Structure formats: C-alpha cells, structure tokens
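thoughts on my protein:
***
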Amino acid sequence: MSQVFSEETHRNLLARIPHCTGREVTDWLRAVDEGPALFNFEEKVSWLRHEHNLAYGHAKALIHEYDLRRAARKLL
C-alpha cells in the first residue's frame, strides 16, 4: 500500500469526492470492489482514473481507503 498524503490530506480528499464526482465514497468503494481484479495499488488508481475519469488525488485516496477498510475487515 502506498500513501504519500498525510492523514489530514487523505480525509480532506475523501470529504471532497462527493462534491467533485456526484457519487458518495461508499459508491466508489463498491465500484472498486466490483471492478477488475487488479493486484497493485497503482494499477487500481490507474483503472479508476481512466475508467471513471477521476483526478489522480481522488483515485489515490479512494484506493488507499479501500485498502484500509479491506485490512480492517480481515482483522475482525
């Protein structure tokens, strides 16, 4: 998992996604889950950018959030 953003920047990007895209973060996370089985972080970011025309920062924040939530589920 690759993250260059601070935690604050990550949260700010996530908060802006609904306004900028018209879709909730949970909708985007579902799209990633239902999307192609890509293995690495940058492939997933690239897929979101090209398939859904997302900005790099938003795509990166979404994939990081997806990975965080997936890891949390594995701990339960």
